[in-house]
Design brief:
Blueprint: H1 2-18, E1 42-46, E2 49-53, H2 58-65, H3 69-78, H4 87-99, H5 104-113, H6 126-137, H7 140-149, H8 158-172, H9 176-185, H10 189-192, H11 197-206, H12 215-224, H13 227-238, H14 244-253, H15 262-274, H16 281-285, H17 288-291, H18 294-310, H19 320-327, H20 330-337, H21 343-358
Antiparallel strand pairs: 1-2
Helix pairs in contact: 2-4, 3-5, 11-12, 11-14, 18-21
Length: 376
């Protein structure tokens, strides 16, 4: 009995040695060993003795956590200063991420897109933040997914950014599962959200009711958009003869129309009116015409329709058939309008179609696309 008591006292001394300060912390939703410590030893019992192992450097910390050599190399390429990072704070943050269910491959994605993430104070207001997010996301798996999608959820100003933004959406009628879906699909909701009388008027003009499946998209997209951006996109459509009422009604039925760039809408509309010879009102009924890729879908298929007409083939692509053809998958389109012809005709049409798809916009091939960080 005396030996057991002595051993207990020794363990208590060790805990005070490695976990200084108040040992009685607030009750957390989860209990994770050493989550808030500054030194996180790995205790191994060997031959009846307790050996406390300290990682020598950040490489060992990441390796012990499960990062492969390739993972560590990628992390250091994006954030070289992590090579010389203090071991204790780094280990503490790794423990927090582990407790949230975030794995080593997830960290590679996070650092690749948020290189300074591990330099942030992710343990600031952590208990309160965790409790709030667990009530919102309901499961640890969804919360982990949201954090990997947008790691800044752990670094945003909790009281001045996170809580007010979530509260705004709940007041607007977007809550529960709908709010989770939008946070996952639009990660920048929290820092970009703002509502005022003018934006409330935009939502009213769409005519979308709170019971509609489109409501959460309308509210979210208007909430994160700048006034000038919305007005610029409305003005762009007005140039093609649409009234403001028609435009906002279109936004209500197809909210993602608000995500299309002015340039994309302008190019597609110009082609629809000028080359395809369709009326502007067709777009109100078939919004997919503005979502479709001009170079890969609209232009080559319309040009092929003209080619078929010039060859005076029996199967023509015009009127309602043209609209159906423009929204078909590539495989179905080729089967319906190219492969159905005799082989020599089909080969000629296929060659023409490939050439039409190969024509790029001016200077398109010379554009350099370098994507670093999240695409939002």
């Amino acid at each position: 009995m005396f030996n057991m008591i002595s051993k207990g006292h020794a363990l208590i001394k060790l805990r005070f040695l490695f976990f200084p300060g108040n040992l009685v912390a607030k009750t957390s939703l989860f209990v994770w060993p050493a989550t808030y410590s500054t030194i996180c030893p790995i205790q191994v019992e060997r031959e009846g003795k307790e050996i406390i192992d300290h990682p020598k450097d950040s490489t060992e910390v990441l390796s012990n956590w499960g990062c492969s050599d390739s993972d560590i190399s990628k992390i250091f390429v994006r954030r070289p200063s992590l090579r010389k990072a203090d071991v204790a704070p780094l280990q503490s943050k790794i423990n927090i991420l582990s407790g949230l269910g975030i794995k080593a491959p997830d960290l590679v994605k996070i650092i690749n897109c948020r290189p300074r993430f591990l330099g942030s104070r992710i343990n600031h207001n952590f208990d309160e933040r965790l409790e709030f997010f667990m009530k919102l996301f309901e499961t640890r798996e969804l919360l982990a997914k949201a954090i990997v999608r947008n790691p800044s959820l752990l670094t945003y100003d909790f009281h001045n950014k996170v809580k007010p933004a979530i509260s705004l959406y709940e007041e607007m009628g977007v809550s529960g599962r709908d709010l989770i879906v939008m946070l996952l699909s639009r990660p920048t909701m929290i820092p970009r959200t703002s509502f005022d009388d003018e934006k409330m008027e935009y939502i009213r003009k769409t005519g979308v009711s709170k019971d509609s499946k489109m409501y959460k998209y309308v509210v979210t997209l208007i909430g994160i958009s700048r006034h000038e951006t919305i007005l610029r996109k409305v003005a762009n459509l007005e140039k093609f003869g649409f009234s403001e009422e028609e435009i906002f009604s279109l936004f209500g039925r197809s909210p993602f129309m608000m995500t299309l760039s002015v340039d994309r809408v302008q190019r597609n509309m110009t082609f629809i009116l000028g080359t395809a010879k369709l009326s502007a009102s067709v777009v109100l009924k078939y919004p997919f015409l503005l979502y479709s890729n001009l170079e890969a879908v609209l232009k080559p298929r319309v040009l092929l329709a003209e080619k078929i007409q010039d060859m005076d083939l029996i199967l023509q692509i015009k009127g309602p058939t043209l609209l159906r053809a423009l929204r078909m998958t590539e495989k179905r389109f080729l089967k319906a309008f190219v492969e159905c012809h005799p082989k020599d005709v089909a080969d000629e049409l296929m060659e023409f179609y490939r050439n039409a798809k190969g024509v790029k916009r001016l200077a398109e091939a010379s554009k350099k696309r370098v994507t670093e960080g999240f695409p939002f």
